[in-house]
Amino acid sequence: MRIAVIGTGYVGLVTGTCLADLGNETICVDIDEEKIQKLKKGILTIYEPGLEDLIHRNIEKKRISFTTDLADAIKRSDVIFIAVGTPPDKDGKADLSAVKSVAAEIGKNMNGYKIVINKSTVPVGSGDMVRSIIQDNLSFPCNFDVVSNPEFLREGSAIDDFMHPDRVVIGANDIKVAEKIAQIYSPLETEILITDVKSAEIIKYASNAFLAVKISFINEIANFCELVGASVEDVSKGMGLDKRIGQAFLKAGIGYGGSCFPKDTNALYETGLEVGYEFKIVRAAIDVNENKKIRFLEKVIKVIGTADAKNTKIAIWGLAFKPNTDDMREAPSIVIVNGLVNAGFKVSVYDPVSMEQAKKIFKETVSYVDLYESVKDASALLILTDWNEFKQTDLKYVKSLLKKPLIFDGRNLYNPEEMKKLGFIYYSIGRKDPDTI
């Protein structure tokens, strides 16, 4: 099929590239001229493992192209994916301004029947909104259909998630239209769920909210485990062995971040309020998640003390909200690093891929150095992202570099007993704190 994908962020670029790899003629569109010029040369504008090779292959096969000419892309395509950002507004609701703008342009440039697909994460009722905007902007009477096709891509494994999905959800009010879109995904050999548009829109939010609740629940249990001297890892394993619960998303830490869970839980909660319903469980998950970052920060400051903060260096390993991405949107590291800086500490940071993103956020308030330079003469090391690089580091060398052998591990990378034998004072999540510093 001839497909236009509007928006070349994580969702749009991965979707467009994978659709091209499935044999479709795909046009990826963005208003950012610099980004499009880089993509034309095969230069990635996001960090996503495996994506660069996939783009190069499809450029060579001439199955994918990149442009800023939205009008031309609309006219040349049979199917149009809207994959622009829907960031939270000041009230926590999804900001649909980009979706609305694209819908208006689609209407103005419609030159025949099109299927318009909402790939962006949008609140329930957005399909009707897009349909109305397109209709209002048509230059002449023209038939079209609007479909909801939510994405379920995880940053760091987005290619595999697209090519080997758990399911594909297609929301359409006409079964024949849904079946046309199902043909696009037929090579993936996965279950395709066809439903109405509104149900598809809710499926996306409900899925992310449920996973966020699961993370926040185990983090509450972790808080309790620390107080009573139990092991949250044993508790998680015991829970996860129950097939009704499962092991996934039961890993305690310092809270979720990224572009999906924080945004989508808030948007679902606010959408509920608009129709007179309060999602109390979702609200609790949001509150627990925010508290987890603060709780970790407060423990660090309490243990280290602030009497000589201006002369105390603290090292940070990991800034991205999760490994295998450079994404720092809503990352717990932002709250923790800013909290330490505001308390007067000297902060030295390292992340394998997100240092450039960090510089946009922290500016000159922290030092940006390499792995071992960050811990040299530091009074404590904080681990905020579970990169494999940190799991395999030379801990004896780290100890020799640290001013004090003090580690706060927000991702439970190490075994407490082994750390004790190595001479570290080791704080982690959901485990008994060390007896003394």
Walk me through this protein's architecture.
With 437 residues, the chain is of the alpha/beta class. The chain folds into two domains: 2-195, 3-Layer(aba) Sandwich (Rossmann fold), CATH 3.40.50; 286-427, Rossmann fold, CATH 3.40.50. The protein contains 18 helices and 14 strands. It has helices spanning 10-21, 33-40, 51-60, 70-76, 97-109, 126-137, 158-163, 175-185, 197-228, 232-240, 261-274, 280-304, 332-342, 355-362, 371-375, 388-391, 395-401, 416-421; strands spanning 2-6, 25-29, 64-67, 79-82, 114-118, 144-148, 168-171, 192-195, 313-317, 346-350, 367-368, 380-383, 406-409, 425-427. Strands 3-2-1-4-5-6 form a six-stranded parallel sheet, sandwiched between helices. A six-stranded parallel sheet has the order 11-10-9-12-13-14. A two-stranded parallel ribbon has the order 7-8. Helix 5 packs parallel to helix 6 and helix 9 packs across helix 11. The radius of gyration is 24 Å and the shape is elongated. The N and C termini lie far apart (64 Å). The mean pLDDT is 96.
